[in-house]
Amino acid sequence: MGESPEEAAEKGRNGLALPVLAATLTSVVVFFLGTFFYGVSQFLFVALAMAVVISLFASFFVARTVVPLFCAKFIKGHFDQEMRKNIQEQLIQVSCCQITVAQEFIGSD
Question: What is the pTM of this model?
Fold first, then answer.
């Protein structure tokens, strides 16, 4: 607590490195096994499996580089009580709007 935004972003990036890597690798292993299909299923699923594997690695790269950079640049170092209350009110308003839109969508059968 009390670090600058850059230090906090770096600390968070390093603290979450292994869990994010583990989640990425478990998903990659599952989809990579799809490359061992044969016959018609090979033509149907190998390209999809490889696309998912590549996108997972790209997502891991973004999680390790871009997200901490944006956190360091856009998150302010100090939140006072008034700012915290305003953010909570905005989140509640957005959530209420999303619920209203979802109810309208579901009810429009």
Answer: 0.62
